[in-house]
Design goal:
The chain has about 50 residues and is an all-alpha fold. It is built from three helices and no strands. α1 packs across α2 and α2 crosses α3. It starts with 5 loop residues before the first helix and ends with a helix.
Amino acid sequence: MAGLTDEGAGRQLGLSPRTIRRMMADIMKRLDARSRFEARWPCAAERKWI
């Protein structure tokens, strides 16, 4: 789902945009990432999440 807005991701997953934002905030907090870009590759790859 790379590049989708919260609304687009929510539509594809059957979730609300608010839920997507909360999920992303939780992931970013766990990764100690300051941006979605930072969370997407370096931090997630180091933890073997992707």
